[in-house]
Every structure is written in structure tokens, then in C-alpha cells.
Recover the amino acids of this structure.
DNA sequence: CGAGGCCGGTGCAACGATGCACCGCATGCT
DNA sequence: AGCATGCGGTGCATCGTTGCACCGGCCTCG
């Protein structure tokens, strides 16, 4: 099952087989070509990737580092990225960082040692310093779900939805419905994304002539360590309780993401309110569950498939070094999906 | 950054470095050893996996073929498997088959070509014939979420929860609560799992002295092509509507899995019924969402973490060929998690 | 007529790590 | 004396693939 055996079977030299395999067959007799192809079929030959990689230094594997594929949001990214990669013969090596910065760095290190030169990194960290040494050595990095920052490596590609626009759409939807008393529920605004979303929220308020100071931002036990996924919903639930205790509770709530929004819904329900009637709630991400929940959740959709495809395309063109070496930032347009959880104020 | 450079830096031969790297350092001067270790640290050397694999034929990557990591159930498996593998220095190559038998086979082929000798396969197919050729060549296969079948390769390891017991627990819980009119909601019983779950369901009915013939099995547009994940909930929703149209609707419903159960809940709610009061619903899997939904879902938990760890352990011991070559079947005990979606009949 | 070009391929030295055979010397045993 | 065995390492062929340099024969062209 080596190229040597194929060559013998076809009565040519290994080099010739290699030439065919690598598209250098412009000046090859069609007959020779067919003999080789037949031999390959007959023996069921598949090139050995290790040998190929050792020789060329190239490979067709890209790394994906996500906080956790247990979270449907990242699961969806993994699926779409893999799908885009597969179409071009690439593989995806999956790594769950579990939001642990050290694991994140170790993974990127290990990927590099494996000869993986392109990585899609979904980092929880605002700074990318921990992977800079490898970027300097030529690692191609796509940061996903993160807009580019000052201090990022020059070659970095950032892919993200436009978070500000997203939550602006969300808040605007509420003000359009007539809500005047709004709340924004999130953990600590520790990441760039979260800050952006909050910015969009306040922008929408101002546009509607509402003083943002009268709105409520409800981060609960707002520390950096609240990034988890189940925790997001717990947080929403607690925040809802907190909001209901106010003397003039908000009628419209924008949550930092869907998991959080679902928690908010649950908390409101605990407090005896009906979501989509007494109170309106908007989420962010449009995870599968958003359309299953009762009530179905109005939310801001990230165009996952397109974003994943873009991540792969960017990586690939840079790995081929046919692409630009200069970094860039791709901001995707979010879309408001209106469902049952929002309605005019009672 | 090659072993040669480390050797030069340490003033020894590459072989000696290699010996240390591979634990053949019994008769090595501690001083030599330290010199090498220092050199490794100083240069930040990491062995090149491609070269190592080419030479040894071994590698530390295992494959995971799942229908889709977009589904939280498989996402959880991916996460736990990766975690178990990482602890031993192994990597997981993720493959989404999208329930396409051809993709499934292509992936296993490709993994083999990549030198991956161990694969955890979550196949939708009752037969494993399509991968037999590779198993004969030495591919180690662990079938996950699938009990072993006649005709399976002799070396196959099967890992699954005991599906019959699981749904028996579910149905028993309902009969214990006093429900006498039960329904089982599923797509076509096309897989072994589904058949087993249905078997457990009827067994529980018989045990409770209920004639299974009076129960309802509600497969909707019951063809093989209803395996999807979003579809599962659609299916549940439609099934609920169908059940409500009966002249004597069931008061207790066992669903084939959580996604389906969530769909059922939604369908019941559409019909004006309150789940956990008017009707009881039990799911299967205990995905994250089960505890987030309103009402929270009573369900049968699969001990994912343990199952994933077992999958890795089995694979690893066979790859080291320190383990048994004989196949075996591991059935894990499911656990009933009682939450809000079940209650005595109204 | 000789230099150069075009054929359709082939030869060969790498890529980086591995692990067996083996180095030369000192000591122990018979 | 003669041989085995220990020491702490080293030399070298090898894994499968790649792609440049180059083969010898024939044609073209100035």
C-alpha cells in the first residue's frame, strides 16, 4: 500500500506516480496515466499523510479551539467549519479549552507541534498574547466571535457578528414595540463582545429618546468567572428575580445570549409573570433551543454557516499563501428573529 | 527545532535524545539527562509528530465519528472523549457524518489513511459492514450508543446505555405515578436503540398490568429519514398534536429522546395543555436543555462522562495491544432524573 | 552542423525520528 | 588466559513521499 507498490504495479517509477498524484501530469502520456490510475484503484492505495507532511511541511488539518462543544453554539460552529473544510479535503482537529487560558495555549502549542499551521481560535481572553510567539513563527490565526483589538498580531483575521448592531436591533425592536423601561442582563462585561453588545443596547435607547441612565444593567455577581454555559442561564434566572424586586421593573429585557435569556424567562415565570405578554425578552445567538422554548424566543441570529465558511476560506487562502498576509476583520450582519417572547407592553 | 539541534546543543547524538524522549533512559548518566532536558527547554523543542509517526507507525490520535456535534448530546460526548484522551496525551479528530452512511465510511477510510488506528464510531447504521475491510486490517473500533449485534466484527467494542432499562424506568415512573394510558413517541424504530427503548416501554406496561395494545405508539411520518435533531423536535410536536386528537388521549408520554420530548411539550402546550399537570412527559439523554426548559424535563440520564471515558480506555488499551483483542459489550446503567414535567394524572 | 529545446519520464537526496546493532573499555567469572 | 557481561552511549538504515536535476533520443533552427 505504498507509492512504491503502485509504481511497480503500473510499471513506472514512484516519482511518476507522485507526479500524477500532485497534478504534475501535463506532459504525461494518457496511457501511462491510466495504468497508474488502475493500479491505484486495484491496490486501494491512499497516500500516507505522515510521510507527505514530513516531506512537504504542509498538511491539510486545521485546528479549532472552542470553549466547549458541549455548548450548542460552539457545536454549530464546529459542524459548519468541519463541513466547509471537508469540501476542500481538509480536516478539523477539535480542542475544548473549557475556558482555561492555559489549556488554550497548550492546545495551540500542540497543534503547532503537530504541523498544524492554521487555527480557528475562539478565545475567552481579550488579549492574544499567549499565542503570539507561534504567530510570529508563521501560525495563521483566525479569531472567531471576537472583533480585532489594538495589540492583536498584524496578520490576525477576526471574524465576528457585529455585536453592537445585533443588540441595537434587539433593543430597537423593544422600543419600537413601545417599551420605555428596558434592562440589559449580562455577566461582567469582561469581553469585547459583551461591551459591544452593551454599547448597541444603549445606542438604541438614545435613538429612541430614552435616557440610558434610566435603564437597568443587571450583572449578577458580576465577576469574570461567570462564563459557563449552564451558569449563563442561572445568571439570567437570578437577574430576573433581581429585576422583579425593583420598584419600577422593566418591561423589556435584552439578554447577553440565548442561554441567559432562557434563564431570564424562567426567572420571570418563577415570579409569576408571563413572557411575551407581561414582559418581553430578547436573546442573542439563535441557538436551536430558541425555537423550541415556550414561549419561542425572539433573538438575534448569527449567520453561523457563513461565518464558519469565511473562517475556513480565510485560513486556507493564507495557508496556500495565495492570500493576503495582512490581517483583517470580518463583521457579519446579525438578523433579528422575532418570535413569541416579545410583544407590546401590557 | 529538530532532534538534531537539541543533540548538538546538549553535546550528544540524536539517538541519545531520542532514547530519553522514549523512556529508554535507565542507563543514562543523570548529568547527560539534565543536559538534554535543558537543551529541550532552551530551544522549546517539540518532537515532530509526522516524522515520529512515519517511523513508528503509531500515533496518538483517535477518530470520533458522530452524526453531528450540532446536537448537544454528541457535543457532550465529543467533549468528554476529548477530555479523557487529552489526559493521556491523545488527540481527537472530529468527524460529523451528518447521518450519511457514505460520509461515515469515507471518514473512517480517511482516518485510516491518516494513520489513525482507533475510532469511536457513532453509526446510524444497524450494520457495520461498510467498515469491515479496515477492521480486518487492524482498525480498532468502538461503537458508541449502539449495542452489539450478530454480524459485528469479533473485535468490536460496543458501548451504550441500557436502553431497555432506561425507557422501562421512564414508563415505570409514569405508571407509579398512576398513569394508565401511555404513549411512546418516536420516529421509525429503524435503529437497535430505538427498538430497545420501545421494548423497555412495553415491558414496564406489562409489569404494571397494562395491556401494551392499549398504549399508543406515535411515530409520525415514520420513515428512516427522520434522524435529524431539529427534526426530532418537530416530530415530537406533530406527534403531540396527533395524540391530542385521539378520543381518549394518553396522560403520560415517553419520548425517544430529549429533543423529541421538548417538541412534544411544545405540541401539548399548543393544544392548551400544561405539561407536568395535565400531561406528563419523560425524555431520554438528559441534555443540558432538559434542566432549562419550562417545565424542567424529567428524563433518563446517560452517564456520558463515564461512557466516554470507557470508550477511550478501551480504545487505548487495544491500540497498545496490551488489552484484549476480543470484542465486548459495555452496557451502562441509566438513571431516572425526576423533574417538573411529570406528575400524577389530573 | 552544432546548439538548444522538447519529450516522457527517472534517480536520488532529503524531511525528522527511531531503535537495533554495536562501539571500546573494564570488570568478573571459570 | 579466554570469554561473557556490564557500562553509557553512538551509527546508520529506515519509514513513504516529494520535487529538483537530469536522463537519452529526436526535432528545430540559425
Amino acid at each position: 500500500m505504498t507509492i512504491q507498490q503502485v509504481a511497480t504495479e503500473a510499471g513506472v517509477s514512484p516519482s511518476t506516480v507522485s507526479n500524477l498524484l500532485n497534478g504534475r501530469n501535463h506532459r504525461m502520456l494518457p496511457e501511462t496515466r491510466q495504468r497508474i490510475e488502475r493500479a491505484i484503484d486495484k491496490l486501494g492505495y491512499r497516500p500516507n499523510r505522515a510521510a507527505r507532511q514530513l516531506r512537504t511541511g504542509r498538511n491539510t488539518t486545521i485546528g479549532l479551539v472552542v470553549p466547549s462543544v458541549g455548548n450548542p453554539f460552539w457545536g454549530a460552529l464546529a459542524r459548519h467549519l468541519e463541513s466547509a473544510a471537508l469540501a476542500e479535503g481538509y480536516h478539523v482537529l477539535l480542542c475544548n479549552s473549557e475556558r482555561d487560558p492555559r489549556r488554550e495555549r497548550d492546545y495551540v502549542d500542540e497543534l503547532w507541534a503537530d504541523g498544524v499551521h492554521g487555527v480557528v481560535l475562539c478565545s475567552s481572553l481579550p488579549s492574544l498574547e499567549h499565542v503570539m510567539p507561534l504567530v510570529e513563527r508563521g501560525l495563521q490565526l483566525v479569531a472567531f466571535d471576537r472583533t480585532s483589538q489594538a495589540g492583536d498580531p498584524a496578520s490576525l483575521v477576526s471574524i465576528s457578528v457585529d455585536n453592537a448592531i445585533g443588540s441595537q436591533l434587539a433593543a430597537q425592536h423593544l422600543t419600537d414595540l413601545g417599551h420605555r423601561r428596558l434592562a440589559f442582563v449580562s455577566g461582567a462585561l469582561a469581553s469585547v463582545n459583551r461591551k459591544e453588545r452593551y454599547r448597541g443596547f444603549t445606542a438604541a435607547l438614545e435613538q429612541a429618546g430614552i435616557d440610558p441612565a434610566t435603564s437597568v444593567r443587571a450583572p449578577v455577581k458580576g465577576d469574570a468567572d461567570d462564563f459557563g454555559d449552564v451558569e449563563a442561564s442561572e445568571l439570567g434566572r437570578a437577574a430576573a428575580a433581581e429585576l422583579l424586586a425593583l420598584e419600577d421593573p422593566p418591561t423589556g429585557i435584552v439578554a447577553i445570549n440565548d442561554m441567559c435569556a432562557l434563564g431570564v424567562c424562567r426567572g420571570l415565570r418563577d415570579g409569576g409573570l408571563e413572557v411575551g405578554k407581561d414582559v418581553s425578552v430578547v436573546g442573542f445567538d439563535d441557538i436551536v433551543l430558541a425555537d423550541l422554548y415556550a414561549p419561542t424566543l425572539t433573538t438575534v441570529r448569527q449567520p453561523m454557516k457563513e461565518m464558519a465558511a469565511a473562517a475556513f476560506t480565510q485560513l486556507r487562502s493564507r495557508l496556500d499563501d495565495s492570500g493576503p498576509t495582512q490581517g483583517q476583520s470580518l463583521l457579519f450582519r446579525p438578523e433579528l428573529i422575532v418570535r413569541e417572547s416579545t410583544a407590546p407592553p401590557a
Summary: Residues 2-4, 14-15, 17-19, 21-22, 24, 47-48, 50-56 of chain A lie near DNA strand D (CB under 10 Å from a C1'). DSSP finds twelve helices and twelve strands in chain A. Chain A touches chain B through 47 residues (CB under 8 Å). The CA atoms of residues 117 and 138 of chain A lie 7 Å apart.
